[in-house]
């Protein structure tokens, strides 16, 4: 991946924050990353979703009392186009049993977010994810 400009670096840091707040089930901070006019198409939905509908997806990280969630991010492209930045990356997440220390499940998904700066703050205005082929 090429060297990032300032806007691209800011957005990538927000992508990292996105996964931190999701891991901590911090719904308020999670929703603050999304624009009010968000258009998103998550892989778990047959339909496009809005900001009001997307918050429930945060709960997937809580799979069970003895399962610990962890993840790694692999950026493929973070690129500025005029007033937006598009980030494309793969996240691999793992659920590990804290009693047996065994990995119970793991999955990778492709993520595409479009970010726009509004009143000094970057917000996700569009997003989509899908399972890698």
Overall description:
The model has no long low-confidence stretch (mean pLDDT 92). The protein has one domain (6-130): Nuclear Transport Factor 2, Chain: A. Strands 1-5-4-3-2 form a five-stranded mixed β-sheet. Helices cover 21% and strands 47% of the residues. It is of the alpha+beta class and 133 residues long. The longest helix has 18 residues, at 6-23. The protein has helices spanning 6-23, 27-32, 51-54; strands at 34-41, 67-81, 84-97, 103-118, 121-130.
Please state roughly what percent of the residues sit in beta strands, choosing from under 5%, 5-15%, 15-25%, 25-35%, 35-45% or over 45%.
over 45%
The arrangement of helices and strands along the chain is HHEHEEEE
Reading off the top of the CATH hierarchy, the class is best stated as Alpha Beta
Q: What is the name of the CATH architecture?
A: Roll
> Counting H and I runs of at least 4 residues, what is the number of helices?
3
User: In what order do the strands lie side by side in the largest sheet?
Assistant: 1-5-4-3-2
Q: Which percent range fits the helix content?
A: 10-25%
Summarize the structure.
By secondary structure, this protein is of the alpha+beta class. Helix content is 21%, strand content 47%.
